[in-house]
Design brief:
There is one protein chain. The chain is an alpha/beta fold and 412 residues long. Helix content is 24%, strand content 22%. 52% of the residues are buried. The chain has one domain: Alpha/Beta hydrolase fold, catalytic domain (Rossmann fold, 3-Layer(aba) Sandwich). The strands form 2 sheets. Strands 2-1-14-13-12-11-9-10-6-5-8-7 form a 12-stranded mixed beta sheet, sandwiched between helices. GO terms for molecular function: 1-alkyl-2-acetylglycerophosphocholine esterase activity. InterPro entries: AB_hydrolase_fold (IPR029058). Keywords: Hydrolase, Lipid degradation, Lipid metabolism, Membrane, Transmembrane, Transmembrane helix. One of its GO terms (biological process) is lipid catabolic process.
Length: 412
């Protein structure tokens, strides 16, 4: 049995309407429930030309499974740099075919380690899309995704590809000053203390890149992106980055921090975007067994947010429930399990970042992926105007329920 608690301030008016639900999520129940009826696979929403599916009777199970689109995937580069941006996008489900995109975690190791462990072939993992297939007709909203500290831009492909199947174009830049390569290289060279990350600037540059792509007649994304609807999702340090982005960039309509936030928890700045909270809708999610970003910090960060806001906790889940990392070595401890297999020494401070939540007894992270997909998709659809209510975030599947208020958040 899985437990999901959700707490929300959901009023868009000056009148606060606090509402909360505590549920018990059964993965067996989730797997037996199909999609809500899709009334149109490509339909106009809000008169802007967005070809996002219209879903009738949206509820807490509508987005558990993949949406009606196939998923394409391509790699762009931030202008003037070699920084890659991985992009997942909607493709025609009935006609797309080609080579499935993958990534090899070995490519994230510093060059010196790749040379030292030349016999290690790496771990190849599917990243959710088909490489460079044509994009589906129509226009689609854009979501930028920010990976975690010591992570990489393809670290959460179960989620990024899922969003693309529901009509979002998801662009994830590599944060080269705090990705796995940079962090490991810092330990190898003894230069582990670095300047403040440029991750918000990376996200801003990614937004500019996608805007140029949709206006370029030669681009795969030519006239396919609705840049007037923009969401931001991030994991861990990326959660802090997207919250700061939502403060500094007025184009951002909604932010979602997965086991990470900027105001009220770790990484808060005394000045700048990190010293305040966004004015747009925010969703924070965390695992109650997180040993990296402790639940009390996420609760504090939630309490500091402006309304409308929502807090979701996944009981018994760890820090890496929001990524693919545990599944790189299923049941063996994620990235740390791989390192142990090849006798690669890992600094103690990095062990939780590469393994937290990967070895929970009888509780694989994949059991929680459906609810992450459901809640992130539902929040984006509501905040960007595709669903009139937050029904996709309410009454999560469960057999017990209790009401609390926004001022009585369950403590960790």
């Amino acid at each position: 049995m899985k437990h999901v608690a959700t707490n929300v301030d959901r009023s868009r008016s000056p009148i606060v309407i606090p509402f909360a639900i505590l549920g018990v999520l059964s993965i067996l129940a989730l797997c037996s429930i199909g999609l809500a009826m899709i009334t149109s696979s490509v339909a106009t929403a809000g008169g802007t030309g967005d070809a996002v599916p219209i879903v009738s009777n949206v509820n807490s199970t509508s987005f558990l499974d993949r949406g009606p689109f196939g998923v394409g995937e391509t790699t762009l580069t931030l202008p003037g740099t070699s920084t890659p941006v991985e992009v997942w996008y909607p493709a025609n489900a009935s006609t797309y075919h080609g080579t499935p995109a993958t990534y090899n975690v070995k490519n994230s190791l510093p060059a010196s380690l790749q040379k030292a462990y030349a016999s290690f072939a790496g771990v190849i993992y599917p990243s959710g899309g088909i490489s460079n297939v044509p994009m589906a007709a129509g226009k689609y909203p854009v979501v930028v995704f920010s990976h975690g500290y010591a992570g990489f831009n393809t670290q959460s492909t179960y989620l990024t590809s899922h969003l693309a199947s529901w009509g979002f174009v998801v662009a994830a830049p590599e944060h080269v000053d705090r990705d796995l390569t940079a962090v490991l290289n810092g330990f190898l060279t003894g230069k582990t203390s670095t300047a403040q990350s440029n991750d918000v600037a990376d996200l801003e540059a990614t937004i500019l890149l996608m805007n140029s792509e949709t206006t370029s007649s030669s681009s795969l994304f030519s006239n396919h992106l609705d840049m007037t609807r923009l969401g931001a999702v991030g994991h861990s340090a990326g959660g802090a980055a997207v919250e700061k982005l939502a403060v500094s960039d007025k184009q951002v309509d909604v932010f979602i921090g997965l086991a990470g936030a900027s105001y009220g928890t770790f990484g808060q700045s005394a000045t700048g975007a990190g010293a305040t909270v966004p004015k747009v809708p925010g969703l924070l999610e965390y695992g109650t067994n997180d040993q990296v970003v402790v639940p009390s910090g996420m609760i504090k960060a939630y309490n500091a947010l402006n309304q409308p806001k929502r807090l979701i906790s996944i009981l018994n889940a760890g820090h890496l429930v929001f990524s693919d990392i545990c599944q790189l070595a299923p049941g063996q401890g994620g990235l740390i399990g791989i390192a142990k297999q090849i006798n690669l020494p890992v600094p103690a401070s990095l062990v939780p970042l590469g393994s937290d939540g990967c070895l929970a007894p009888n509780d694989p992270v994949t059991d929680d992926w459906p609810v992450v997909n459901q809640t992130v998709t539902a929040q984006l659809r509501w905040a960007l105007g595709f669903d009139p209510t937050q029904a996709g975030l309410e009454n999560l599947i469960g057999d017990i329920g209790t009401n609390t208020t926004a001022d009585n958040v369950p403590q960790s």
